[in-house]
Write a structure and sequence with these properties.
- The complex is a heterotrimer.
- By secondary structure, chain B is mainly α.
- In chain B, 66% of the residues lie in helices and 4% in strands.
- Chain B starts with a helix and ends with a strand.
- Chain C is elongated and about 55 Å long.
- The chains are: A mainly alpha, B mainly alpha, C mainly alpha.
- At the A-B interface, helix 1, helix 6, helix 7, helix 8 and helix 9 of A face helix 1, helix 5 and helix 8 of B.
């Protein structure tokens, strides 16, 4: 049929990974409010199966490419999967499944709490309520003719308000499922995409879904945080689109493969690429574009923060990886590399320092993300030379850091969410002496913290070690120094979480409102996730060899 | 001088540099190395469509259309959040000039929509339908409702549903993703575009209303 | 070719004006409008670029712009809904921070 264009393979799994969550989201919308978790669990199974199949295919057959609509690039779109895409897809699927399980319990717990408080507010205070109504009776009489009708109206009004408030909470949490499914679909599409305009659409999809997720719990702080994030993210995409338009004008195509071949270095393309990179950097929250992150992630509910920090940030980072190592002309590598590395180093220092100063657990974790993102960008100057083994090591190390970071940070946010539900606050000094009371939660924080610091045998350790090796091989010893300093800074701010925890309880000061019993899975799921991050360094050989499939580095 | 004035001056200076850079980029723009125009037009006969832009959206780059529909869907979900809408019970205003001539206006809109549909400009047709919906809203003939009924939900998601169903069906028969089977190109595109237009029209109407549901005014 | 350059410069100028408004104005509606101006200017830039070829008009940017307008509408709708919810919860129409100290 379309015989002038060569089509490499025909496999439905890539398309299915995108369409299954999308279909589930639409079906749960039609099916009504209660069907969310059901469709999500079905979609989760479907996506895990599809992504595993894609992994198997890439492992055995090499990079996979699927022409959408039967039209190959540059006319049509192509779905492209190589080692890097597969790792990102697997990371999204695994972390996403854990967060789904956690979110199921989290929202069920919140609903139960909401209905409990409304019940306790209604019955015994009937007497006081009648007194209140009688006190306001003159006003009621003025506002309607019959006094009895007025009293009835007041009662119904109060009841209706109570129901409405709970209805609002329940309503909001039910919207989590279609929004998360749509976000998942967008992330899968991002990791399989190979065209810059396609990526623009996917980025907007992810932004809108993320904004709606942040605003889910309806509190004023969350609404303001989501508005701020929306404005910043839309602004970043407009900068990205500006770069796209200029690039298209200069080159004539926006397909990554064609760009890799055709991109020449001239002023227009340089400015265009700089704009595109800046747009992506704002969304990845690299210093100095990180300002939106702490307030946003600290204000959202725990599952949402986990999703955003673990997965969404990695999405734009992935695009930067593709651009940086496959599309850029070779002449730009050194300057871009050193510049990004410099920003990464500043991010490590600034983020760690700010994290160390925080009084609230959620904000501490949020600021620490800025520091950890700085680490991710250190691979750009270290992977400068596309040929030697040191560059390959740096690339692998950076990606391994990204993977273990996703696991660890989502575990931390989930554990912190557990603490928040139990204590009603996340102030660090209120954690005093609670180490024996909540051993599993603090163990989770500790193990995740070990991966973030980079202690062996965690994924963080192996990633840092690979980067240090690359720094030694390429003679850029100053990056090695920064990595080591960063490790000590991480010990400082992670340690700050734990200093009040293991003090013995002197007096019987209890900061809990009432004894809150969380379902078992809410405490064990994050622990498991953190444990995976911990042992990732041991089992990393196969993922790292998977990375080599389709990698842009030529081996000697 | 106050700090806010200094801040504004700083912003203006930085933005001027920004603008200058962009102007340089435009002036020095080279001739593009790849030209896709001929490619688009040469393959146009295979798509059996006459309008190249719609062919791009529904055939060459149907994934972009799918993503656009999904984004519209997400915006729709955010409006459904609002459970505090009060149902307005205002009656249509007879003294306005619009209401007596309403049936003429509606006929014109339907005619134009039909023409747009026939010349394959589906998105514009959907937008026109939405504009019609907003017009009816201003006349209080269409009222916002706190919840969306099943038929409305089906209508809103019909575009996405049909798109995905056709994609799944063709994939099962061994085609590429979003590739139309040879004998059924016309029919599938027609089905998709009808649902697309309805879906986009309804979604845009709901987005403009800001309320989850619509109902017709009770007493006409 | 000068037609293309002229419209491109206009588009870029509009983008900068929108950028300025986004930075300086505090009211949420104005910020949303500023973003709209920026996106619309980008559409103008794309259409101008589409007119580069002397023989025929490049249909690709036109398709970009069509989908782009659809997306800009969705994003604006979401932004407006959010702004309205903020107003209902806080009574404010800007993002000045009242409660910045974390959760409790």
């Amino acid at each position: 049929m379309h015989n002038d264009i060569i089509i490499t393979s025909q496999s439905p799994w890539m398309a299915l990974a995108i369409m299954i969550p999308l279909l589930a989201a639409v079906l749960s919308f039609i099916g009504g409010r209660r069907t969310g978790p059901l469709f999500t669990l079905a979609a989760m199974v479907g996506v895990l199966v599809s992504v595993s199949w894609i992994a198997v295919q890439v492992w055995t057959q090499g990079p996979q490419s699927e022409a959408v609509g039967g039209w190959a690039a540059p006319l049509g779109r192509e779905l492209y999967a190589d080692g890097l895409s597969v790792l990102m897809l697997l990371m999204t699927a695994i972390v996403g499944s854990f967060i789904t399980g956690y979110a199921l319990q989290y929202f069920a717990h919140c609903e139960k709490q909401a209905s409990l408080t409304s019940l306790s507010q209604r019955e015994p205070s009937e007497v006081s309520k009648e007194q209140a109504i009688k006190a306001s009776l003159p006003h009621a009489v003025l506002s309607s003719e019959h006094p009895l009708v007025a009293v009835q109206d007041e009662k119904q009004h109060i009841e209706r308000e109570g129901i409405q408030k709970n209805h609002k909470l329940v309503h909001h949490s039910q919207l989590f499922w279609p929004l998360w499914l749509l976000l998942w679909s967008g992330l899968n599409a991002l990791f399989l995409s190979s065209d810059l305009f396609n990526l623009y659409l996917i980025l907007t999809l992810i932004i809108l879904a993320a904004v709606s997720l942040i605003s889910l719990n309806g509190r004023a702080i969350a609404l303001q945080a989501s508005m701020r994030y929306l404005l910043v993210a839309l602004f970043a995409t407009s900068i990205y689109l500006l770069g796209l338009a200029l690039l298209y004008g200069a080159v004539g195509t926006l397909d990554i493969k064609s760009l890799a071949l055709e991109l020449e270095a001239n002023p227009t393309t340089l400015i265009a690429i700089v704009l595109i990179v800046i747009g992506l950097l704002i969304k990845t929250a690299l210093f100095p574009f990180h300002f939106w992150l702490p307030a946003t992630y600290a204000a959202a509910s725990a599952p949402v923060s986990a999703l955003l920090s673990a997965l969404v940030l990695k999405g734009t980072f992935y695009i930067l990886l593709r651009l940086g190592f496959e599309v850029f002309p070779i002449e730009w590598f050194p300057t871009f590399g050193q510049l990004l590395g410099l920003l990464g180093a500043i991010a490590i220092f600034w983020g760690s320092w700010q994290a160390w100063q925080q009084e609230h657990l959620n904000r501490l974790i949020a600021y620490s993300i800025i520091a950890q993102i700085g680490y991710l960008f250190l691979q750009f100057p270290l992977a400068n030379d596309m040929i030697d083994a040191g560059s390959l090591m740096a690339w692998k190390g950076g990606i391994l850091l990204a993977l273990s970071h996703a696991l660890a940070i989502s575990a931390m946010f989930m554990a912190s969410g557990n603490l928040l539900l139990r204590l009603g606050t996340d102030r660090l000094d209120h954690l005093r002496g609670l180490g024996q009371r909540y051993p599993i939660t603090f163990l989770t924080l500790a193990i995740a913290g070990m991966s973030i610091i980079g202690l062996p045998p965690s994924g963080g350790f192996l990633g840092n070690w690979l980067l240090l090796n690359a720094a030694y091989e390429s003679g850029q010893w100053w990056w090695a120094g920064i990595i080591v300093i960063g490790i000590f800074l991480a010990i400082a701010y992670i340690g700050k979480i734990f200093t009040p925890v293991f003090e013995p309880i002197a007096q019987s000061v209890v900061f809990e409102k009432t004894p809150v019993l969380l379902p078992l899975s809410m405490t064990w799921l994050p622990l498991l996730l953190a444990f995976i991050a911990l042992v990732l360094g041991l089992v990393a050989t196969s993922p790292l060899t998977l990375l080599e499939i389709g990698s842009p580095f030529t081996e000697i | 001088m106050s700090t806010s004035v200094l801040r504004v001056i700083l912003i203006i200076v930085l933005l001027s540099i920004f603008e200058l850079g962009l102007a340089i980029a435009i002036f020095l723009m080279p001739e593009p190395t790849i030209s896709m125009t001929e490619l688009v037009h040469s393959q146009l006969s295979e798509t059996e469509m006459t309008h190249s832009m719609t062919a791009l959206l529904l055939n060459y780059r149907s994934m972009d259309m799918l993503l656009g529909l999904t984004i519209l869907f997400i915006a729709l979900l955010s409006v459904l959040h609002r459970n505090d809408t009060t149902v307005s019970s205002q009656k249509p205003d007879d003294s306005d000039f619009v209401l007596p001539s309403l049936h003429w206006i509606l006929m014109l809109i339907v005619l134009t929509t039909g023409i747009l549909f026939w010349t394959e400009r589906y998105l514009v047709a959907g937008a026109l339908l939405a504009g019609c919906g907003v017009l009816l809203r201003f006349n209080h003939l269409l009222q916002p409702q706190p919840t969306a009924g099943l038929s409305l939900r089906l209508g809103l998601s019909s575009g996405l549903l049909v798109f995905i169903s056709i994609a799944l069906a063709t994939m099962v028969s061994g085609y590429h993703w979003l590739e139309y089977p040879e004998d059924w190109v016309n029919e599938s595109i027609l089905l998709i575009s009808v649902c697309l237009t309805i879906s986009i029209g309804l979604t845009l109407t709901i987005l403009s209303f800001g309320a989850p549901g619509i109902s017709w005014h009770k007493e006409k | 070719m000068t037609k293309v350059v002229f419209y491109s410069l206009v588009a870029v100028g509009l983008f900068t004006i929108g950028f300025y408004t986004l930075l300086v104005e505090a009211h949420l509606l104005r910020k949303i409008m500023a973003l709209n101006i920026m996106f619309t200017s980008l559409f103008l830039l794309l259409i101008a670029i589409a007119a580069r070829y002397p023989q025929a008009i490049d249909p690709l940017p036109h398709a970009f712009v069509l989908i782009g307008i659809l997306i800009a509408v969705s994003a604006t709708a979401l932004a407006l809904t959010l702004a309205r919810r903020i107003y209902q919860e806080t009574g404010q129409t800007d993002l000045s921070e009242k409660q910045e100290t974390g959760i409790s």
